Amino acid sequence: MPTPGLPVHAALSTEPMGILASWSAARRNLLGIIPEAATRQPIVSGRTGKRWHMVTDPEAIRAILLDKVDLYPKSEVTKSLLRPAIGESLFIAEGANWRWQRRSAAPAFSHRNVTNLAPIMSAAAERSAERIAAAGRRAVDLVEEMVRTTFDVITEVTFSGEGGMEAEAVHAAIDAYITEAGRVSFFDVLGLPDWIPRPGRDLAMPDMERTRQIADTAVEARRARGPSAVPDLLDLLLAGQDAETGRYMSTAELRDNLLTFIVAGHETTALTLAWALYLCAFDQDVQDHARAEAQAVLRGGSAASADDLPRLPYIRQIVDEALRLYPPAAMVSRTAMAQDRLCGAEIRPGDTVIIPIYALHRSKLLWQDPDSFRPARFADRKAIPRYSYLPFGDGPRICIGASFALQEAVIILATLLSRFRFTPVRGRDPSPVQILTLRPEGGVWLEAQAMQAAE
């Protein structure tokens, strides 16, 4: 929804909705079920089939994600949507099953290993710049371009470039599953158990079975061959051992986590970059400031590298602000397992407790001019209350790939802004729509003018 002087935003609900209206809105755009009151109140409660509570109070969110994390596991609707695609991976698993997987996978995402992957990101940024330059003055859909760029990265860091077509087939199958079967079922709204069939998901299962076979074959082939000269993500996960139990991941466990990393590891970053470029085109002053910073650091027109990151603070602020305005995971839900109180509201066992991150990031209680694009609000990160900003979640289940995603986003954004001036195409504003991730419906169509690199 364009508003003069503000970047596009979603219309939140202003009237109570019944079961059918809620289901229809959720199928169309999950943001549509968030009450506008969630941007003005710490908690909003209601009943739509099941009792629910939307929480935007930082202290209550801390309780959900950290202090009482075992009391608030991921909701059954979330698990039902994703389990057919990514099995019992880190994203789905709970309790001891989640803890040992997290301990086993964590070394693969250490600062050292993530930094070692930066040259792959720089090379992908270079190829993206070449494709944009080749388009000349023709408008480019930066959603499609960023998906291609970040997919190049995840394919290389996962499989060292081997079997790229197989990896692409895996991504295509999961993306199709999410698009066709990942929408909320009417049975989900009613709170019916997972064993009752959801027709759309059942129809998508044959492709998912084929996907699992492709991934299993890749894992077993690498297990037989041994690690690459420079270990990639699959090598690091194969070598990952839980320090407490001595356990390694089985082929099925590796497969489920690889499928999660392949899709989540590139689509969310691609969306962040597309939204960041939209915002820079929306505000040319911000873009000029960012370009000056990038050109001063990237002398001679080189692509950004890991060594450049400390000298690109404003580029990082743009990424942070894009993640605030358009968080890829704009809503997370939990199921209360026991009696509790949040913000004075009674929470009963079985209640759905939702953190509407889109509304949290635009809360009038927590942010000044929350709908405005102001990267400088992140100049002092310590001034941002921890549980008011959750682009990667928080607590023990914070996204394991957060540092990977931020490094990749800054490298690619700095490289592109140093070389091009992006301007919007009149009448083609994107629309924020969330199914599972917050996507710019209609694409981000921008024109790119080549700029002289600093020497």
Jot down its keywords:
455 residues, alpha+beta, Cytochrome p450, three-stranded antiparallel sheet, 11 strands, 49% helix
Sheet of most strands = 4 strands, mixed
Q: Provide the β-strand percentage band.
A: 5-15%
**N- to C-terminal distance:** 41 Å
* CATH architectural designation: Orthogonal Bundle
Runs with pLDDT <50, length 5+? Answer: none
Helix content: 40-55%
Q: How would you sum up the global shape?
A: globular
Number of E-state strands: 11
Q: What is the C-level CATH assignment?
A: Mainly Alpha
Oligomer: single chain
Mean pLDDT: 87
Number of domains: 1
Give helix and strand order, one letter per element, not per position: HEEHHHHHEHHHHHHHHEEEEHHEEEE
**What structural class results from the helix and strand content?**
alpha+beta
What is the CATH superfamily label? Cytochrome P450
Assign the CATH topology: Cytochrome p450
Radius of gyration: 22 Å
Query: How do the strands of the widest beta sheet line up side by side?
Result: 1-2-7-4
Give me the number of helical elements.
16
Write a structural description.
The protein is α+β, with helices and mostly antiparallel strands. The chain has a single domain, classed as Orthogonal Bundle (Cytochrome p450). The chain contains 16 helices and 11 strands. The protein has helices spanning 19-28, 58-67, 76-86, 95-105, 111-116, 118-134, 142-159, 164-181, 186-190, 199-225, 233-239, 251-282, 284-297, 313-325, 357-360, 402-419, and strands at 43-48, 50-55, 140-141, 332-335, 340-342, 345-347, 352-355, 420-424, 431-434, 438-441, 445-450. The strands form 4 sheets. The chain has a 4-stranded mixed β-sheet with strand order 1-2-7-4. A 3-stranded antiparallel β-sheet has the order 3-11-8. It has a two-stranded antiparallel sheet with strand order 5-6. The chain is globular, with a radius of gyration of 22 Å.
